[in-house]
């Protein structure tokens, strides 16, 4: 029956599930009611309600309470039954009932358990993926194929999220994502999102939240939405922790987490480190360019050596000063870096108009690139509960202070000579600071109406300097090039305010709507680009979510959000990166912000056995849109130096980008041992670009993955995961990608520890990435063979005595939005 329903949903799209009709049979009735906490009389969400036959003692039907504590159980035949209510940490409620008509139980009061459990492990039946009305939650600690990996590995498994071979992330096909850690921004994402995600081990992540239609309480940044990484925080009283170690042929990491909590005070600390071992990445390029006198062909072949390393540490304090006052303080230190080096074999061939070869020059280019980041994060939040239930005010601060360094060195030789005829090296230190100050106030107006409002100020500053030295071939000395060297000072201020309302309408619609206002000012100075002026701009950002829940665990929602992507410092910085003189990259100080309008229609259906199906239709329009853009120049002058046969890559505003498509994800509980989670994303992307001919392009996007989990017993679990991404069109064609992972885990030491193995791309040493780039007078075919095969083993051990205490609802990240204003 379950399979039939799922097929019906997929091919007829819930044609009849939206209307629920009560049976005409005279002996079939329904039971409804409301579950409340005995002391506070507040509704209990996710309590389990069971109807049990009084004679056979078998469960015949059941339900789960909604966020208001309500439940409805249909199709109950006339007779005698027992109703049972269960909720973790509370005493079970049972009552004998006789059904001969529809029954309404006004209030069911359940009380907290008062006993203390000593030296026990508390477990949960939380699913790997949880679909909530405003977000999707991926519980990383339940995923064994991500064990021993990093945040990038977990993101690949999340519906709606796509990760390419380099670790670049897209959400519903959009790379403009606002990344947060525990609901707060961090400067580590400002330098390289891919490197930052590679520095966060999965052993330190509790869950990842994906929010495609954020409310007005969130910053409007990120036209694709928000991904919030929740680090592990133990709400269990006592001293406890865990140790995680993994070693493999490609990735190694280790971490330790320690928690201590007594009554109203808790402290947690962590340290982790990981390394991506050095590996060789074969790559090459074949570029043909057209000039008035003929054409040029540039061939490059190289074996690049690449490695990456990182470590993280932090400490957090949570203090419930009183029943109404709470203080939360966090400090964190992060480092990550990478380096690559190799020798590029180059062949430059020149042809005349008739195709005759005029010259053929072979050369070598030695290169080294290094990049490192050190970031200190800190935050403080004070929350005060006022007289009314849910009436509260919160003052919060977060700061992120980043120090980064970029270095490159390259020298060129003719194949017949050991003396360099050209070369350059540059050292580029920078500072990136971000301060966030906010105040948020929540006011309940009446029983089902909640008003939220707040103010926020964001202060950003980026200071960067670069000294570029060019080789004087005649003397063999490197001399500073003042035309390429530069200093910059970039300052941005964002002033924001919002108001949001949550309420019910017609007793059937749950609505959350709001408006956010953001005013942005930017001031900058570049020593080598005079009179750069970035105008101020302001944005009104409305948002709303309308949802309706049906009796049999079905929900439909419609959402809209206005989003903005401000060009970052590197997009704006006109510094010329000449680490490859034939492929130069630079910023564009004239970029305008990207504006997004996102619409969603979603449907979710849950079954009693844990099976879940989620369908999302989405429409996104960005206008203007920011895209990297390639331009070819036969000759290109920078200061006193002239470069030949050059492509320059910069960021540019195109007129618009429109994406429309669907994402279908399921969690299919086949039996008590096997669960399968497939995900399919299909969309069309069309763009209007005044810089290209033709100016309008359209392409088809397809992403799919599937995860299978098999539980042999309470000791052994195995998983398999496969992923495929179809490359998109943009000035050519981006590469396709596929990967697969196998994993197994065994519980040891009476379930306090586990040992696991992970195998990635066992039969393919490399992921082949073929890229086609097309621009005016330019066609480039390039490739990279990225080393991806790996074999790894991981070990986890939990220690400490635990005492169970139910966390406050406001402390649960899975039910409360992050604290970002």
Concise description?
With 821 residues, the protein is mainly β. It contains 5 helices and 43 strands. The strands form 6 sheets. The chain has a 22-stranded antiparallel barrel.
Main beta sheet: 22 strands, antiparallel, barrel
Oligomerization category of the chains in this entry: single chain
Helix content: under 10%
pLDDT averaged over residues: 85
The overall strand count is 43
Q: For the CA atoms, what is the radius of gyration?
A: 29 Å
Q: Gap between N and C termini, in Å?
A: 45 Å
Structural class determined from secondary elements: mainly beta
Structure description:
The protein has about 800 residues and is mainly beta. About 5% of the residues lie in helices and about 65% in strands. The protein has five helices and 43 strands. The strands form six sheets. The protein has a 22-stranded antiparallel beta barrel. A five-stranded mixed beta sheet has the order 8-9-13-14-12, with no helix packed on it. A hairpin with a 2-residue loop joins strand 15 (about 240-250) and strand 16. The longest helix has 11 residues, at about 1-10. About 35% of the residues are buried.
Please name the defining characteristics of this protein.
821 residues; five-stranded mixed β-sheet
Would you spell out the secondary-structure blueprint of this structure?
Elements: H1 2-12, E1 28-37, E2 48-53, E3 59-64, E4 70-77, E5 79-86, E6 93-99, E7 103-110, E8 129-131, E9 136-138, H2 151-155, E10 161-163, E11 169-171, E12 177-181, H3 188-191, H4 193-198, E13 205-211, E14 225-231, E15 238-248, E16 251-262, E17 265-291, E18 294-319, E19 325-352, E20 357-385, E21 392-414, E22 420-446, E23 449-472, E24 477-480, E25 486-505, E26 509-526, E27 537-550, E28 554-565, H5 569-572, E29 583-585, E30 594-606, E31 612-622, E32 625-638, E33 641-654, E34 656-669, E35 674-688, E36 696-711, E37 716-725, E38 732-733, E39 737-748, E40 753-760, E41 766-775, E42 778-787, E43 790-800
Parallel strand pairs: 1-7, 12-14, 29-33
Antiparallel strand pairs: 1-4, 2-3, 2-5, 5-6, 8-9, 9-13, 10-11, 13-14, 15-16, 15-43, 16-17, 17-18, 17-42, 18-19, 19-20, 20-21, 21-22, 22-23, 23-24, 23-25, 25-26, 26-27, 27-28, 28-30, 30-31, 31-34, 32-33, 34-35, 35-36, 36-37, 37-39, 38-41, 39-40, 40-43, 41-42
């Amino acid at each position: 029956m379950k399979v039939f329903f799922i097929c019906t949903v997929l091919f007829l799209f819930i044609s009849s599930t939206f209307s629920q009709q009560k049976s005409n049979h005279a002996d079939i009735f329904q039971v409804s009611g409301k579950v409340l906490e005995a002391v506070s009389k507040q509704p209990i969400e996710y309590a389990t309600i069971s109807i049990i036959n009084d004679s056979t003692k078998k469960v015949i039907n059941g339900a789960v309470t909604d966020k208001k504590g309500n439940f409805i159980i249909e199709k109950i035949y006339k007779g005698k039954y027992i109703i049972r209510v269960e909720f973790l940490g509370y005493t079970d409620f049972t009552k004998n009932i006789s059904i001969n008509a529809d029954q309404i139980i006004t209030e069911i009061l359940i009380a907290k358990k008062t006993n203390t459990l000593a030296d026990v492990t508390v477990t949960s039946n939380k699913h790997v993926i949880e679909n909530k009305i405003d977000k999707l939650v991926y519980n990383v600690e339940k995923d064994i194929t991500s064990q021993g990996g990093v945040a990038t590995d977990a993101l690949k498994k999340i519906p709606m999220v796509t990760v390419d071979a380099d670790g670049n992330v897209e959400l519903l096909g959009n790379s403009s994502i606002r990344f947060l850690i525990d609901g707060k921004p961090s400067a580590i994402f400002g330098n390289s999102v891919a490197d930052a995600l590679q520095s966060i081990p999965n052993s330190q992540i509790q869950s990842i939240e994906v929010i495609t239609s954020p409310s007005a309480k969130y910053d409007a940044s990120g036209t694709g939405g928000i991904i919030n990484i929740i680090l592990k925080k133990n709400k269990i009283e006592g001293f406890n922790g865990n140790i995680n170690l993994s070693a493999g042929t490609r990735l190694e990491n280790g971490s330790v987490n320690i928690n201590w909590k007594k009554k109203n005070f808790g402290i947690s600390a962590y340290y982790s480190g990981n390394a991506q071992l050095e590996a060789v990445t074969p790559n090459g390029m074949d570029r043909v360019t057209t000039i008035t006198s003929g054409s040029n062909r540039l061939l490059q072949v190289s074996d690049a050596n690449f490695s990456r390393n990182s470590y993280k540490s932090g400490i957090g304090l949570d203090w419930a000063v009183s029943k109404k006052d709470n203080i939360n303080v966090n400090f964190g230190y992060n480092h990550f870096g990478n380096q690559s080096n190799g020798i590029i074999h180059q062949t430059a061939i020149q042809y005349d108009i008739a195709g005759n070869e005029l010259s053929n020059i072979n050369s070598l280019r030695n290169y080294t690139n290094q990049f490192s980041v050190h970031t200190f994060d800190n935050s403080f939040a004070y929350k005060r509960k006022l007289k009314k239930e849910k009436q509260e005010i919160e003052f919060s601060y977060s700061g992120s202070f980043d120090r980064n360094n970029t270095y490159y060195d390259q020298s060129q030789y003719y194949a017949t000579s050991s003396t360099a005829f050209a070369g350059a090296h540059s050292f580029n230190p920078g500072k990136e600071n971000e301060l966030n100050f906010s105040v948020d106030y929540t006011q309940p107006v009446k029983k089902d109406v909640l008003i939220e409002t707040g103010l926020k100020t964001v202060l950003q500053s980026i200071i960067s300097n670069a000294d570029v030295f060019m080789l004087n071939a005649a003397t063999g000395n490197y001399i500073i090039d003042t035309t390429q060297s530069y200093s910059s000072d970039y300052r941005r201020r964002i002033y924001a305010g919002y108001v949001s309302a949550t309420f019910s309408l017609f007793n059937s619609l749950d609505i959350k709507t709001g408006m956010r206002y953001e005013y942005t000012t930017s001031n900058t100075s570049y020593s080598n680009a005079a009179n750069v002026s970035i105008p101020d701009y302001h944005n009104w950002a409305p948002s709303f979510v309308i949802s309706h829940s049906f009796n049999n665990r079905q929900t439909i929602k419609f959402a809209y959000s206005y989003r903005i992507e401000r060009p970052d410092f590197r997009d704006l910085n006109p510094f010329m990166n000449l680490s490859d003189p034939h492929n130069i990259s630079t910023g564009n100080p004239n970029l305008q912000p990207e504006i997004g309008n996102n619409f969603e229609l979603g449907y979710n259906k849950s079954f009693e056995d844990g099976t879940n199906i989620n369908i999302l239709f989405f429409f996104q329009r960005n206008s203007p849109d920011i895209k990297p853009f390639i331009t070819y120049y036969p000759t290109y002058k920078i200061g006193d130096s002239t470069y030949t046969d050059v492509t320059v890559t910069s960021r540019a505003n195109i007129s618009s980008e429109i994406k429309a498509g669907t994402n279908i994800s399921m969690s299919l509980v086949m039996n008590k041992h096997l669960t399968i989670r497939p995900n399919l994303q299909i969309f069309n992307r069309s763009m209007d670009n005044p810089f290209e001919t033709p100016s309008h392009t359209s392409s088809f996007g397809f992403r799919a993955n599937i995860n299978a989990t098999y539980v042999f017993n309470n000791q052994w679990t195995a998983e398999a995961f496969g992923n495929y991404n179809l490359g998109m069109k943009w000035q050519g064609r981006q590469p396709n990608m596929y990967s697969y992972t196998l994993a197994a885990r065994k519980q040891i030491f009476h379930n306090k520890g586990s040992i696991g193995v992970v195998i990635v791309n066992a039969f393919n040493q490399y992921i082949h990435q073929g890229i086609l780039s097309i621009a005016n007078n330019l066609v480039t075919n390039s490739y990279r063979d990225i080393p991806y095969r790996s074999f790894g083993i991981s070990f986890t051990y939990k220690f400490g005595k635990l005492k169970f205490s139910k966390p406050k609802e406001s402390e649960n990240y899975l039910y409360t939005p992050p604290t970002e204003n």
